[in-house]
From TrEMBL:
Protein name: beta-lactamase
UniProt cross-references to Pfam families, sorted A to Z: Lactamase_B
PROSITE patterns: BETA_LACTAMASE_B_1
Cofactor: Zn(2+)
Localization: Periplasm
Length: 265
């Protein structure tokens, strides 16, 4: 509940919120930054105003919503989309790249040199996770390294990669920085620290039970495991995680633990 209250308090950092249609929503973070989201994929899409154009981050509202997203962007800023950035290569973040490239946007993949931005690469959720810090709005886009609507997915970088990624994010900006997760509500560094604490609590508990010889089904039924899992349910959803996803989370955590059995948190 404490983490939930922290995330609720973040809403007061957002200047305004408006439902734009049945499928898109938009949050005005500052004069220079909006965050849009489509209901189909719930991906947080960054829209950042430069002097002579716009930067679009993770443009994927849904496969049938690109033209709608384009119209909404044009209603917010009377500027062209000049650059497209992706926090990682998964389709729920890159699906709109081709559409907006045809509108004139340039996809930046390697040679990153945008004034007012800091870019770092980490390995946690995917083989290459791009973190973008926008100085003027004091906002950090972290992709699926941090997700306030789901459990942690640290499978590519493992325990070491996850911890290094969180450290890298914490080193950006200041204590007032707004963090935009890949999905879910915006957060702050206090929430990110809580997310890391809960993740290591989860890993350590799964490790303990796995070493006792418990199988996946027995681990899933453990009340302490269920209590830890519930800490990621910051919006108090009644059906936070389907059983199939819950089982996969336990199984993949065990795989990471076995791969890094000598790593200590």
């Amino acid at each position: 509940m404490k983490q939930f209250r922290i995330l609720i308090s973040i809403s007061f950092l957002i200047i305004s919120f408006a439902a734009l249609s049945n499928s898109l929503s938009v949050e005005k973070v500052s004069e220079h930054l909006y965050v849009l989201s489509g209901k189909e994929y719930t991906t947080n899409i960054g829209l950042i105003a430069l002097e002579d154009g716009l930067v679009l981050i993770d443009p994927m509202p849904g496969n049938n919503q690109f033209s709608e997203l384009d119209r909404e962007i044009r209603s917010i800023y009377d500027k062209p989309i000049t650059f497209i950035l992706n926090t990682h290569a998964h389709s729920d973040h890159t699906g709109g790249n081709e559409y907006f490239k045809k509108q004139g946007g340039k996809l930046i993949e390697n040679a990153f040199n945008l004034d007012g931005f800091t870019h770092i690469k980490v390995k946690s959720h995917s083989a290459i996770d791009n973190i973008y810090y926008h100085e003027k709005s004091n906002t950090i886009f972290v992709g699926d390294v941090f997700d306030t609507s789901w459990h942690p997915t640290f499978y590519s970088g493992g325990i070491k990669g996850f911890n290094a990624a969180i450290d890298a994010i914490l080193d950006l900006g200041d204590d007032q920085s707004l963090i935009i997760p890949g999905h879910g509500v915006p957060a702050n560094k206090s929430s990110l620290l809580g997310f890391r604490k809960n993740t290591f609590e989860w890993i350590n508990k799964i490790r303990e039970l796995n070493q006792k010889g418990w199988d996946v089904e027995r681990i899933m039924g453990d009340t302490q495991v269920q209590d830890i899992l519930e800490k990621f349910n910051v919006n108090n959803k009644s059906s936070f995680l389907p059983q199939k996803a819950y089982k996969r989370f336990v199984e993949r955590t065990i795989t990471v633990i076995k791969r890094e059995k000598h790593v200590k948190s």
